[in-house]
Amino acid sequence: MSHLLFEPLTLRGLTFRNRSWVPPMCQYSVDKQDGAATQWHVVHYGAMARGGAGAIIVEATGVTPEARISAEDLGLWNDEQRDALTPVVDFIHSQGSAAGIQLAHAGRKASVHPEWGTDGDGSLTESEGGWQTLAPSTIAFDGLAEPRAMSEAEIDETVAAFAASARRSIDAGFDFVEIHAAHGYLLHEFLSPLSNTRTDSYGGSPDNRARFLLEVVDATRAEVGEDVPVFVRLSATDWDEGGLSLDDTVELSGWLKDHGVDLIDVSTGGNVMATIPVGPGYQTTFAEGIRERTGIPTAAVGLLTEPFQAEHILATEQADAVLLGRESLRDPNFPIRAADALRFEIDYKPAQYHRAYK
Ligand SMILES: Cc1cc2nc3c(=O)[nH]c(=O)nc-3n(C[C@H](O)[C@H](O)[C@H](O)COP(=O)(O)O)c2cc1C
C-alpha cells in the first residue's frame, strides 16, 4: 500500500512531516474586536496539531482593520496582534506541525455580520459598527453594501499592509504564509472581470488584473526572505459565464510561479452567486490541471473526508498535499486516524494518549 499522505514534503527551507493539512477556517472568535487571538485559537489549532496535521493554515487574518470580514476576525496590523499569535504558533510547533497563516483583505465582502453569534446577516450598518468597503470597482456583491473603488494610492498602501503583516507573521514564528486571492475577496475581485471594470493599469487585460496580486507576492517575498514558502489561494473558476476559467488560472499560476510562489491552494468560486456542482473532491480536477500545466505544486481542497480518498489524490498526482477543512473540525485527529486506516506507523501520536492506541 502506498503511504503518500505520510511522505514528508519540502518547500524551500521547510519540511512538512506529512501531506494532510488544515486549510484556513475563520473562527470569528476574537473577543474584543481588536483582531487579537484568544485562548480559543490556541486550543482549536492546538488540537489539530496534536491530531497529527502536517501543516495548519491559520484563518483569514486582516492586514488592515477594514480588511476583516467581520469585527470578530483576526488581524495582523499591529504588534499586539503579533504577540497574541505567538502562543498559537508555539503550541502548533510543540506538536510537530508547520504553522502558516492566511493573510487577507475581504474587499467588498468585508464589514458583515459573522456567520454565527449575532442576530443579523449581510452588511453591518454604520450604527452596528460597519465600515466603508473597498473594491476594484463600485459593483456590489449580491446583497451586500456598495463598495468604493480603490485609488492607486490605496492599492499601494494595501500592498504595504500585506508586506507588514507578512513581516509580523514571521516575527510571531509562522513557518509560511498564504495570500488569500480566492472566494471573492479583494485580490480575487481584482483578478475577475466580473468585479473589476477598471480602466487603469489594474484593470482590463489579464496581466493588468493580476498586477495587484503580483505586487503583493513580490512585497511579501521581500519581507519573508528566500527560505520561507509563500502560498497563494486561488479560486480556479468563478463558475460563471464571463468569469475566470481554469485556463485563466493556469496562465496566472504560471506568473505566480515565475514570481517565486511555492504552492497554489486551489479552491473555486465565491466572487458571484453561482451554481456549483458540489460533491466529494469536486475541486481536485482544478488542482490537477494547474499542477500538470504549470509544474507548480498544488494543494487540493473541498469535501475531502476519507483517508483513501486523500491518498488517491496524491497517488494520481492531482496535488502535492490535501487540505481537510470541515473534516478537521469534526475530527481534529484525522491524520492519526488516516495513518491507522492506511496501516502506516507514525511516531507522533501524543505520548500522553498512549493507552488509547495500544
Ligand atoms: C468554518 C469555515 C471557515 C472558513 N474560513 C475560511 C478562511 O478563513 N479562508 C479561506 O480561504 N477559506 C475558508 N473556508 C473554506 C475552507 O478553507 C475550505 O476551502 C472549504 O471548507 C472546503 O473544504 P472542506 O470541504 O474540507 O471543508 C472556511 C470554511 C469553513 C467551514
From TrEMBL:
Reported cofactor(s): FMN
GO MF assignments: FMN binding; NADP binding; NADPH dehydrogenase activity
Assigned keywords, A-Z: Flavoprotein, FMN, NADP, Oxidoreductase
Species of origin: Brevibacterium sandarakinum
Domain annotation NADH:flavin oxidoreductase/NADH oxidase N-terminal: ranges: 5-342
InterPro entries, per the entry: Aldolase_TIM, OxRdtase_FMN_N, YqjM-like
Name used for this protein in its record: 2,4-dienoyl-CoA reductase
